[in-house]
Write a structure and sequence with these properties.
Keywords: Transferase. By secondary structure, this protein is α/β, with parallel strands linked by helices. It is built from 18 helices and 14 strands.
Length: about 425
């Protein structure tokens, strides 16, 4: 284990230091997870501007005093981090970042392929001075291949990676067109896979003393997470189409209209289907050879679904949910996000939090879903103000005989969050 990663009491990744040179969502999502688990994440931002998503509002987050704390988007992916504002385009800024990297376990970046080489901040340059460094690069299309130099954004990758081809209403129905998912899911999934890669590389480093470069591609992740839809194509040679809220391999597994709203019925096996039919007052459907087994229900979905829709529309949503839950048939409402956070189970799991700023102010936030029994996630900590930790981190980690922080502040190479306030 290297000097930079001595374990200390606390969360699972306490003692791990991450130099975060990412922005937008995929990279910040990865480093937010690492911060949740106790890693010290030093987020590098552009002086005066910061991460692009700081300005991706409204809506903005306010503290309990009603003060604007910046775009909600930024707060959704940057909790628990420290912000250091450094201009990496300047030679002195590059020297600062090299010095920080030399004292870090992990560097993660999402610049275009080769974009950091001109600053001496690419993997080859940093590994030359710290051979055990784990360095993760996140790009749209990866470090190799004919598209490597293209910019990649989640929406584009959802399209190119096939997800939109299986999302949306079927052709010939109202509103039929390929549809993106309502959150930037490819970015989020790439962040998750990046964490898996980083932790795997750290395990190897701890065993061998060797660092390595992790090449994460949004397109790779999107193709890999097509899951059953990818295998359906590979097994048949036929591209799956759009089925709206229906499932290609399970029936009934979709949204149904009740007398006062829609719900989700998710029948996963023949026993659940038989119990549903009993609750619906149509036990004969479960013994009908066309519907008795899931393969037959899939083959005969066009016959079965209209029958079920007729049954579902005759009772209220709450009536169905209560009766089917009592019969252990998976069912649930289609909640708005307001209803999600009002749900008693979501509340009991503590998913809404009140992260605290260094000044003691309380904001709103979402909890980490990772629940470890012995090394739980860190207490909720708010996303940092731009440059909030510049002086604190740099004065601690840099040699004052080499780096004159006051001079660097004066010439604009670094910025502290107080700079703007002092000049107002």
């Amino acid at each position: 284990m290297t000097e930079t990663s001595k374990t200390v009491p606390g969360a699972a990744l306490s003692g791990l230091r991450v130099l975060d040179m990412t922005r937008i969502l995929a990279g910040p999502w990865a480093t937010q997870i690492l911060a949740d688990m106790g890693a010290e994440v030093i987020k590098i931002e552009r002086p005066g501007e910061g991460d692009d998503t700081r300005s991706w509002g409204p809506p903005n987050v306010t503290d309990q005093q009603g003060r604007d704390r910046g775009a909600a988007y930024f707060h959704g992916a940057n909790r628990g981090k420290k912000s250091v504002a450094v201009d990496m385009a300047r030679p002195e800024g590059q020297r600062i970042l090299k010095a920080l990297a030399a004292q870090s376990d992990v560097v993660i970046e999402n610049f275009k392929v080769g974009g950091l080489a001109k600053y001496g901040l690419d993997y080859a340059s940093l590994a030359a001075v710290k051979p055990d460094l784990v360095y993760c690069s996140i790009t749209g299309f990866g470090q190799t291949g004919p598209y490597a130099n293209r910019a990649g954004y989640d929406f584009l990758i959802q399209a190119m990676g096939g997800l939109m081809s299986v999302t949306g209403q079927p052709d010939g129905t109202p509103g039929a067109e390929p549809m993106k998912v309502g959150v930037a899911l490819t970015d989020v999934l790439t962040g998750l896979y990046a964490v898996i890669g980083i932790l795997s590389a750290l395990r190897h480093r701890d065993a061998t003393g060797e660092g390595q470069h992790i090449d994460m591609s949004l397109l790779d992740v999107q193709v890999a997470t097509l899951a059953n839809q990818a295998m359906n194509y590979l097994a048949t040679g036929k591209s799956p189409g759009r089925l709206g809220n229906a499932h290609p391999s399970i029936v009934p597994y979709q949204a149904f209209a009740t007398s006062d709203g829609h719900l989700i019925l998710a029948v996963g096996n023949d026993g659940q289907f038989a119990r549903f039919c009993d609750v619906a007052g149509a036990p004969g459907l479960a013994t009908d050879p066309r519907f008795a087994t899931n393969p037959e229900r899939v083959r005969n979905r066009d016959v079965l679904i209209p029958i079920l829709q007729g049954l579902m529309s005759g009772r209220s949503m709450d009536d169905w949910i209560e009766a089917l839950n009592a019969a252990s048939v998976p069912v649930g409402p289609i909640n708005t996000i307001e209803r999600v956070f009002a749900d008693p189970h979501v509340q009991s799991r503590g998913l809404r939090t009140s992260p605290e700023t260094p000044q003691g102010d309380r904001l709103v936030g979402v909890a980490s879903p990772i629940n470890l029994s012995r090394t739980p996630a860190m207490p909720p900590r708010a996303a940092p103000d731009l440059g909030a930790d510049t002086i604190g981190i740099l004065s601690h980690m840099l040699d004052p005989s080499i780096f004159d922080l006051e001079a660097l502040m004066t010439d604009g190479t670094i910025a502290d969050f107080r700079t703007k306030k002092d000049g107002e």
